Amino acid sequence: MKYAKGLFFLGVLLSLFVLSDLVLWWYLSAKSLSFEETKALYLSYFPAWSRNARYLTGLFIIINIAAMYVIGKAIAFLGKNYRGAGILFMILNALMLALKLWSLM
């Protein structure tokens, strides 16, 4: 595949984007605020048109699945170093996906 490295780095960027969302939530929830205050503060970091918790969770699930697909597609054509890193990012994405799906309950 001609653009395997580019796809790999796109998948990594998508993974880091979802990870930054989780880190933001963990950072805000570590403060001693109620759940509703933490949720309002979390949503204030996003544009006004996307300040819906279910919408954002669904969006980040889609981004996470896209990252897993892109990384999986790219590591099939890359060397051992990329495969090892790709497998680690696939595991990280699977964990983040499980957390996002669990947060829907």
Structure overview:
This protein has 105 residues and is mainly α. It has one domain. The chain is built from four helices and no strands. It has helices spanning 4-30, 35-43, 53-75, 80-103. Helix 3 (53-75) packs antiparallel against helix 4. The longest helix has 27 residues, at 4-30. It is elongated. The model has no long low-confidence stretch (mean pLDDT 89).
In short:
This protein has one domain. Helices cover 79% and strands 0% of the residues. It is built from 4 helices and no strands.
Helix content range: over 70%
User: What overall geometry do the principal axes of the alpha carbons give?
Assistant: elongated
Bin the strand percentage.
under 5%
Number of helices: 4
Give the C-alpha Rg. 16 Å
User: What does the main sheet amount to?
Assistant: none
Encode the helix/strand succession as letters: HHHH
Mean pLDDT: 89
List its traits.
mainly alpha; 105 residues
Q: Topology, pairings included?
A:
Layout: H1 4-30, H2 35-43, H3 53-75, H4 80-103
Helix pairs in contact: 1-2, 1-3, 1-4, 3-4
